[in-house]
């Protein structure tokens, strides 16, 4: 009787061979590219006289450098304009599908692929972007890769990788009101650490994930990488199939029935053997906010910034650096921290369900004086859906700016940047020093509903007070 995990099954099915180095040569079913990590890869191909081996397996969009306030071409930023032109040319020369601005399908790469049905269970997916782990929500094995690996996939449709161990992260029970998928993954990373997942794939399992919709599962898998895991995934189930059915690239007719039968077969077996299992209770997870300079430095909304003596010895050095950089004191409450900028969006939390939750908080209220708050849909389809529901009007009436789709103030390779020492409540995924466009800017990660609450209150606040 099989005792395999989904990871093992998908890995074995995509193994081309074992290289002399001992690494696995793994076939990649879907290669997603954007404007940031692909130009150098295409240049390397040209230098070697190579072509893209399977053009139909590569799909491109533009997301990191696009301005979200005015997308008229040419872009005001000449570097951004050069990058989008390079992508346009590379896609044209290699006959690649490119979802450009105005195509109806442009957006953040990890938002558009699932919503048009490109992302499916049992696939191997690669993209030159660390948050490719998002696609694991569908029961795919998805890797973020570097530029030289982007070249390798373009040229050979394979990657050389070491096989990972599998850790099962089981969360059981129902989340309390005001606690969201973002809080779950921040809690997991806080508990296991930012290096806890090194060498592992994370399988997210348990009744809590079974109750989540696909967008919530994507939020969790998106940030598996922030816990040190190479990828994260959830086994496919009826929720997965209901989401995928009738999407543009989903199988149709008899092919659909055949696909579902196969997807069921690749799920982790009931008696699958894991390298490690860790169990959490959903009821114990609070609304969570990061206070420091790594996604692992998080606390519950009513907790206090930890004192050095409360931390493990290996965590104290980074904590001391975080106190200085964030200008926060050990023992002080995170609640009440003043906020300058509030950003709702990103590949973690820029989907329609994220915007709905934030709009519930914004409705009938006003952004606090002196706070700049803006909402950036994750794709053109998300923007269209939100506007059809009137969410844009709710946000604008409350004093939020409503923007065009893009990565915006996450990596901030566009005009959306923090200024100086501004402090941001952000629904994105990284709170590293300088992450949101200012070398001295400060980022607090939280759920979209918590960001909306901070915008209304002008300070870090408990979303449950406004629900």
UniProtKB/TrEMBL annotation:
Gene it is expressed from: leuC
Subunit composition and interactions: Heterodimer of LeuC and LeuD.
Protein role: Catalyzes the isomerization between 2-isopropylmalate and 3-isopropylmalate, via the formation of 2-isopropylmaleate.
A Pfam match: Aconitase
Family: Belongs to the aconitase/IPM isomerase family. LeuC type 1 subfamily.
Pathway listed: Amino-acid biosynthesis; L-leucine biosynthesis; L-leucine from 3-methyl-2-oxobutanoate: step 2/4
PROSITE patterns per record: ACONITASE_1 (PS00450), ACONITASE_2 (PS01244)
Cross-referenced HAMAP family: LeuC_type1
Keywords assigned: 4Fe-4S, Amino-acid biosynthesis, Branched-chain amino acid biosynthesis, Iron, Iron-sulfur, Isomerase, Leucine biosynthesis, Lyase, Metal-binding
Transmembrane regions listed in the UniProt entry: none
Stretches for region Disordered: 422-443
Cofactor field: [4Fe-4S] cluster
Ligand binding ([4Fe-4S] cluster): 347, 407, 410
Classification via InterPro entries: 3-IsopropMal_deHydase_lsu (IPR004430), Acnase/IPM_dHydase_lsu_aba_1/3 (IPR015931), Acoase/IPM_deHydtase_lsu_aba (IPR001030), Aconitase_4Fe-4S_BS (IPR018136), Aconitase_4Fe-4S_dom (IPR036008), IPM_dehydratase_rel_enz (IPR050067), IPMI_cat (IPR033941)
Matching PANTHER family: 3-ISOPROPYLMALATE DEHYDRATASE, HOMOACONITASE, MITOCHONDRIAL-RELATED
GO molecular function annotations of the record: 3-isopropylmalate dehydratase activity; 4 iron, 4 sulfur cluster binding; isomerase activity; metal ion binding
Name assigned to this protein: 3-isopropylmalate dehydratase large subunit
């Amino acid at each position: 009787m099989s005792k395999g995990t989904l990871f093992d099954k998908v890995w074995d099915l995509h193994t081309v061979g074992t290289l002399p180095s001992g690494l696995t040569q793994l076939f990649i079913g879907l290669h997603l590219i954007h404007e940031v990590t692909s130009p150098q890869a295409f240049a390397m191909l040209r230098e070697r006289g190579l072509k893209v081996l399977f053009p139909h397996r590569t799909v491109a969009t533009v997301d990191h450098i696009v301005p979200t306030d005015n997308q008229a071409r040419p872009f005001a930023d000449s570097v951004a304009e050069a990058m989008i032109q390079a992508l346009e040319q590379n896609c044209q020369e290699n006959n690649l599908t490119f979802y450009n601005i105005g195509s109806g399908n442009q957006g953040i790469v990890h938002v558009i692929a699932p919503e048009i049905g490109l992302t499916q269970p049992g696939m191997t997916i690669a993209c030159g972007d660390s948050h490719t782990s998002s696609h694991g929500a569908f029961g795919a094995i998805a890797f973020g890769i570097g530029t030289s690996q982007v070249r390798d996939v373009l040229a050979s449709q394979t990657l050389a990788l070491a096989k990972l161990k599998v850790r099962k992260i089981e969360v059981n029970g129902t989340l309390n009101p005001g606690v969201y998928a973002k809080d779950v993954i921040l809690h997991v990373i806080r508990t296991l650490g930012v290096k806890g997942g090194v060498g592992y794939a994370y399988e997210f399992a348990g009744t809590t994930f079974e109750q989540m919709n696909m967008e919530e599962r994507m939020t969790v898998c998106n940030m598996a990488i922030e816990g040190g895991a190479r990828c994260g995934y959830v086994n496919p189930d009826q929720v997965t199939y209901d989401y995928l059915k009738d999407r543009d690239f989903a199988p149709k007719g008899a092919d659909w029935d055949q696909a579902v039968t196969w997807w069921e077969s690749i799920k982790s077996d009931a008696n699958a053997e894991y390298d490690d299992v860790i169990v959490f209770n959903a009821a114990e997870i609070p609304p969570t906010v990061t206070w420091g300079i790594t996604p692992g430095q998080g606390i519950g909304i009513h907790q206090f910034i930890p004192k050095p003596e409360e931390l493990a010895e290996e965590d104290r050095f980074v904590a001391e650096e975080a106190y200085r950089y964030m200008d926060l004191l050990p023992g002080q409450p995170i609640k009440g921290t003043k906020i300058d900028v509030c950003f709702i969006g990103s590949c973690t939390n820029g989907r329609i369900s994220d915007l709905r939750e934030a709009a519930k908080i914004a409705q009938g209220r006003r952004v606090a004086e002196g706070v700049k708050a803006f909402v950036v849909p994750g794709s053109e389809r998300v923007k269209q859906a939100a506007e059809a529901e009137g969410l844009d009007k709710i946000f604008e009436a409350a004093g939020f700016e409503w923007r065009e789709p893009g990565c915006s103030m996450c990596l901030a390779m566009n005009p959306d940047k923090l200024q100086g020492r501004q402090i941001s409540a952000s629904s994105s995924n990284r709170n590293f020093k300088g992450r949101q466009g200012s070398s001295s800017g400060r980022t607090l990660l939280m759920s979209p509903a918590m960001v909306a609450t901070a915008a209304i209150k002008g300070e870090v606040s408990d979303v449950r007070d406004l629900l």
